[in-house]
# Entry
Amino acid sequence: MQITRRNLIRSGLAAAAVSGILRPVPALAVVPTGTTLARTWQRGAPGAGGYRKIVAGGGEPHVVRTEFVTTPAADRATRRTGVLAFAQLSDVHVVDAQSPMRLEWLDRFDDTDAVGDPTTTLTSSSYRAHEMLSAQVADSMVRAINAVAGAAPVTRLPLDFAIQTGDNADNAQYNETRWNIDILSGGKVVTPDSGNRTKWEGVADQDLLSYDPHYWHPDGQPVLRPVDIPRKQYGFPKVPGLLTAARRPFTPAGLRMPWFTAFGNHDGGVQGNFPPKTLGVGMNAIATGSLKIISPPAGLSQADLLHALRTDPLGLLNSLEVGTHVRVVSADKDRRILTRAQVVEEHFTTTGAPVGHGFTAQNRAQGTAYYTYVRGQVQVIVLDTVNPNGYADGSLDQAQMTWLTDELATPRAAYQVICSHHTSETMGNPLVATGGDLSPRVLGPAVVTLLQAHPRVIAWINGHSHRNQVWARTGGARGFWEINTASHIDFPQQSRLVEIADNDDGTLSIFATMVDHAAPASYGGSLANTLKLASLSRELSANDWQERTANRNGAVADRNVELLIQKP
# Structure
């Protein structure tokens, strides 16, 4: 099953918290400043249309998870030694919200008033009212991580590095990939704009001919047009000037530490699903062209849509009526769709460190995106779980599985940590050939079994689900912790700090601590800087009408946790 922001809610995944594993860490061991240990952001009381402001809530202490160590030593906090501390950013989804390949109208199939043929979930997450603010949220998150970089909350170690676990861009576009690299690296001005640099061209502006009330229009509706549904039905505000502020150049802070990256399905596929080398060819022409679909034609079903996308996407575009379903926008070659090899290559043009951000000369030569590096006592193994043959879920090719087997068998450090985009449970994609890759695919259960056979593996850190989750993968030689982290694009817009500590009693503690980005609770009516804009983004994301019952925070035992495990 594809994990999206829609069907994740519906799947009814069980909460990780179970009776008997929740024990508070002694307060003496923690300095909570700058993290959710000190303060959380929560949805406030509903107002008109159910719209909620963001309010401050209490901090959340670490919860002890004891699936591997049932009787942890009571005095471990007084004896532990820090091994490594780092930050994880996942599913940043830096979006070019004006791109013709940003197919917001597909999300209509998943609206509460949808009429059509909901036979798949390929069209989910196609529109979010706040997506024009993704670059500012990324900068705000960088500032939050920098604020705690000097001393992690438990070990007090400086953060050694940061790693992105995929879906760094949203639609595999060149400009999105560059914005992401430049925001994390700092040192140069970023202009999150495309097409016509003097005005907004997309679903959110006041263009009279293409106005569609299904989308939020922060400047209000054109004359003689109805109020949009988000404002009328869901209580969304008017925010005049937002579309100009969202395009404004800014100087990003840049991470004050080395940063590494992993490859995600939105980095490697059009809409996160369609392979650039085959199905993406026609879509690349749409992305760089001058026609943008705004509204779906009457009677178009999902089955019709998917057939058109797979066989003749340009034909679908040309069959629609300009002014009713399609508007003319400014073409932009910087919206071109990148292949995996091209995404890897872009990371070697950077003001940040290390050059390549983990990708190696071998990756450049072979067009691969998996690699390994050592930081102190920890070997980090970064996987490429994206299937180049398409579809959002992941898997490994056989060559990578052989490489991973060899790396695990010949460890380069005392401990091994795996990083990837997909979770083990979302690595069920067996497709071959449709994207031009003929290699047999290796699925999640086989990877879990392999990792369980190697006791130096203590954790697998990933994203993709947009939800905080932690699993104890017991079995084999010992097992490992799988740590899954929420996104920047959906509420609560969080990242994690990860700390590894030696308890000096034959066990390790892995502390995982949630971090909110640096923006305040309210933008206060100001659009003056990235923090104000990121604050508005958080508020809008909390009110996404298709997400209002979501709990992407996860259970209490999926957020701030101490994960005990036997020392290898």
Summary: The mean pLDDT is 90. Residues 134-148 form the longest helix (15 residues). Residues 82 and 530 are 34 Å apart (CA to CA). The first strand starts at residue 39 and ends at 46.
